[in-house]
Design goal:
With 182 residues, the chain is α/β, with parallel strands linked by helices. It has eight helices and four strands, in the order αβαβαβαβαααα. It has a four-stranded parallel beta sheet with strand order 2-1-3-4, sandwiched between helices. Helix 4 links the parallel strand 3 and strand 4. The protein starts with a helix and ends in a 13-residue tail after the last helix. The N terminus is likely disordered.
Length: 182
Amino acid sequence: MIWLLMLLVPIGRAREMLIQYGPPRSATTFQWQVLRAAACLRDGAPPEIVKVHQEEQLRGALRRAKATGFLLFATARGGGDRRPRCADAGRDAERTRVELSEKLGAAVDHVQLYEYLERCGSNVQVYAYAEKLGLDDGAGDDVLEYMRYWSVLRRRCGPQMSFDYRARLLGSRAQTTPSRAR
């Protein structure tokens, strides 16, 4: 499947530069991983995706990408309603995409709003990325399957694991207070 292709095939070049931009803690890693999986299916090799968190870094990446062309994907936190209605996701993402495009002076191809990802789940986002990269629904299914496994590994084996579990794995008896637990 896709995970095997991503592990075994050396890093290749995408048809255009993929740029991922967003503030930290806005699901940028999720977006980066979906883009990597979808572009790997499209191109037959995992692409190099430029991931930046600051506007200055983004402007540098955009200058480098002028020659090859680029697709710009962004994450954002809405800052508004903490319990958004999933039915409003498309409208709010489009409004944010237009505002961000104007602010950055570059066309943003897709915006993922953190609050909607958290509340409404990742399925819609995964298929939106697959579509932006020219994949059909079958390939979108493959990317979704990959992301389900990746999400579990990230929470259980990566920086998202609980403090208590990490301490136990490292042989410590340290316990967290309820305020420190994830």
